[in-house]
Amino acid sequence: MSRRYTKRAAAQFAVGLDFSTFPVAAGETLVASNALGSLAVTAVDTAGDDVSTTVIDGPPWISGTQVRWLLKRGTPAGWYELVIAAPTSDGELLVDRQRLEVLP
Of these four, 24, 27, 44, 80, which has the most CB atoms within 10 Å of its CB? Predict the structure, then answer.
């Protein structure tokens, strides 16, 4: 996990992960989908349950070399693992895991 986000339960804001530091070929770009999967950000709570609809508002989007998404809600004093999947024009699927802490 390369990053940790912290927010209040009521706070809602856009965040992003810049994939330009990942090992990609020259000219390779992020795309909505390829044979390996689709652009996605999911959230899992400490029990392992998918809580994406509670923590993430709407689908992620591509902005240059970044995958961006809107964080919303969350249980106060809760921890979540965010899984970001970014397909590329060269047929790769880049995946990163990050933590979200919702403050009490």
Answer: 80
